Recover the amino acids of this structure.
């Protein structure tokens, strides 16, 4: 019994130490957002506890980010991710509904196209695709940034898994009453699917929020730069003012952290159904 | 008596018109997604495959000429290509098992019902929420000579390390960075899988007097095979196409030690204006990735009816 309790305390201590290891870089990032870059590196070489806590608080880094147009980059990212989530959810839910509920010939073949799409990762074909986009005259537009996020096989897959779990008797009863597929989709399946929609929405959101390679391939006009691209540009441009880079990264990290913390319950349930019940 | 076959005829006709109606409805529901997937995922794969069999002069108006396997032959004769391939494989052989192993340990630790497990889980998952480009840069700064990582080493009385600027340490440094980001993400999938294992099995094993290790290897691991396979495949695919950390921090260097295949595809296509070699490398990357994923399915997916 006593041995067991010691073991448990040890394991809890281990869990705390490991989480702190993951947390420390985040604390360092936030502390460095509110102090000068000189102070940041002075506190780490030689290392002191001040590395995790600013001694002279300042908002200069955030001001410098704002003055360099970071708000516009952030706005671009939010706009691209927002449109992707709304439009992407609509068309993914429609496709998932057809694949899960409507009996039709060629369903298996169509589903295999969807599965195929997430076996070939987008990054792998981004480079040849960007050459096609410039031939089609689509470079340097929001459309070019948004389009690749919309046809997301993983989102369709997640929603289809959920729709398969809805008792078919519901749709059959509505069918008897003469409701068309559109009405069955809209008034029976969609309202039930809220948790799955949140999970799929997160998949679509994170795809765009993380996007880096595709935006540098299709956008050369810096007004259209997404936030991660802007950060990497300021990292490359300044050899000294890393304060601004810290501030921009912190802002970019806080937004998805809030979204994920608020929705984590749904995210875990939806990935569970993706991973374990293929 | 004749009413019966007639009504069957009617149902049959109604059934045919219904199946036509279903097909139409399904088509309308599916068109946007299927067109996007075909145009944006499937077609570019074939474009790359076809481009890898051609060669043209950059900036010339002449159509690129079909040269068969010549571009591939050129790659196979170039020592740079073999170095790129070797480094890509070295990186992946280490990073994928390492990440999955740590994720699994963390997932097991955090499903033991310890106090405040949810908090630790969230903290470990947090790095996955930071966009890769951002966390890459933060780590790049943390690994500087005067950064906090070297600060810790020196506080412990160890010599400072060059990390990303040393040909011998660059792969290790990149593994550290992507693992800090990836481990918590994959852990969430494994926690979900562990929670799905019915507790009766674990209790039965305990009744039979099986120890913790024995239970882990004969009950937990076999029951966790599906999520484990999913995580391993998805992790492998994402590490083979890793791009942002290489482009932002090392540019393939020092001395080409981090010039992974994915980065070289980009470099060939955009900086060296050789999209044909880029496409050929892309095809090679896809083939290797598919081969490795197939092996993983064989090893872990054994006896599954999928």
């Amino acid at each position: 019994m006593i041995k067991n309790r010691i073991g448990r305390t040890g394991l809890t201590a281990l869990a705390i130490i490991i989480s702190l290891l993951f947390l420390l870089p985040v604390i360092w990032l936030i502390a460095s957002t509110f102090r000068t870059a000189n102070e940041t590196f002075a506190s780490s070489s030689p290392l002191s506890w001040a590395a995790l806590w600013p001694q002279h608080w300042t908002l200069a880094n955030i001001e410098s980010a704002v003055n360099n147009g970071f708000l516009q980059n952030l706005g671009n990212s939010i706009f691209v991710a927002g449109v992707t989530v709304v439009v992407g959810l609509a068309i993914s839910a429609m496709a998932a509904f057809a694949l899960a509920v409507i009996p039709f010939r060629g369903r298996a073949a169509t589903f295999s196209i969807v599965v195929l799409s997430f076996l070939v990762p987008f990054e792998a074909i981004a480079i040849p695709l960007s050459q096609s986009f410039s031939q089609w005259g689509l470079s340097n537009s929001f459309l070019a940034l948004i389009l690749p996020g919309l046809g997301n096989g993983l989102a369709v897959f997640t929603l289809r898994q959920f729709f398969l779990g809805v008792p078919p008797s519901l749709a059959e009863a509505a069918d008897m009453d003469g409701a068309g597929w559109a009405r069955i989709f809209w008034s029976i399946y969609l309202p039930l699917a809220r948790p799955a929609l949140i999970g799929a929405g997160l998949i679509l959101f994170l795809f765009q929020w993380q996007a880096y390679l595709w935006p540098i391939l299709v956008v050369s006009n810096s007004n259209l730069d997404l936030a991660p691209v802007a950060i990497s540009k300021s990292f490359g441009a300044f050899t000294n003012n890393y304060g601004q880079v810290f501030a921009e990264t912190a802002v970019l990290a806080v937004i998805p952290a809030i979204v994920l913390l608020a929705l984590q319950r749904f995210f875990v349930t939806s990935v569970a159904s993706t991973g374990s019940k293929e | 008596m004749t009413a019966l076959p007639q009504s069957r005829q009617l149902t049959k006709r109604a059934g045919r018109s219904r199946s036509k109606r279903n097909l139409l409805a399904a088509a309308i529901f599916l068109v946007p997604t299927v067109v996007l997937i075909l145009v944006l995922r499937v077609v570019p794969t074939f474009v790359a495959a076809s481009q890898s069999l051609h060669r043209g002069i950059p900036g010339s108006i002449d159509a690129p000429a079909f040269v068969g396997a010549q571009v591939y032959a050129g790659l196979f004769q170039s020592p740079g290509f073999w170095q790129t391939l070797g480094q890509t494989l070295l990186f992946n052989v280490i990073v994928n098992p390492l990440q999955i192993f740590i994720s699994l340990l963390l997932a097991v630790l955090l499903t033991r019902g310890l106090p405040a497990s949810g908090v630790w889980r969230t903290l470990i998952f947090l790095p996955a929420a930071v966009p890769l480009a951002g966390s890459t840069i933060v780590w790049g700064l943390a690994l500087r000579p005067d950064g906090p990582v070297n600060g810790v080493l020196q506080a412990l009385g160890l010599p400072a390390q060059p990390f990303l600027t040393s040909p011998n340490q660059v792969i290790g440094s990149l593994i550290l960075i992507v693992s800090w980001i990836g481990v918590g993400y994959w852990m969430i999938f494994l926690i979900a899988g562990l929670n799905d294992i019915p507790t009766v099995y674990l209790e039965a094993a305990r009744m039979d007097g099986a120890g913790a290790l024995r239970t882990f290897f004969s009950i937990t691991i076999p029951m966790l095979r599906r999520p484990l396979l999913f995580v391993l495949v998805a992790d492998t695919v994402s590490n083979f196409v890793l791009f942002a950390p290489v482009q932002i921090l090392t540019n393939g260097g020092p001395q080409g030690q981090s010039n992974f295949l994915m980065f070289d595809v980009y470099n060939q296509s955009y900086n060296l204006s050789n999209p044909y070699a880029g496409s050929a490398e892309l095809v090679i990357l896809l083939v290797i990735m598919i081969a490795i994923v197939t092996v993983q399915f064989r090893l872990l997916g054994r006896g599954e009816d999928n």
Notes: The domain at 68-276 of chain A is CATH 1.10.3720.10 (MetI-like fold). Chain A has two domains: 2-58, 68-276.
